[in-house]
Write a structure and sequence with these properties.
Elements: E1 8-12, E2 24-26, H1 38-48, E3 52-55, E4 61-66, E5 77-80
Parallel strand pairs: 1-5
Antiparallel strand pairs: 1-2, 3-4, 4-5
Amino acid sequence: MATYSLAGAGVAAGGFQLNTAAIFKIPDTSQDGEAAAGAGGLLQATQDGDQMLVKQPDGSFAWYKYDAERSTVANPILVKV
């Protein structure tokens, strides 16, 4: 099971700004075990197209990846796989 200790957060593609939209919790690592949260993790996961088991606002889990064109360190955008 994924861990969420770094408290990374993002929004789903088509959502609003991070401070007003439903928050999706990004795990510490992607499916291949590399970092997924934080600046370095976002860059690596985006570059590799890694999928992450993200905790959705309702408490359920689903596979997402970063939107390579719209994600920034301050505003990670997630696309459901």
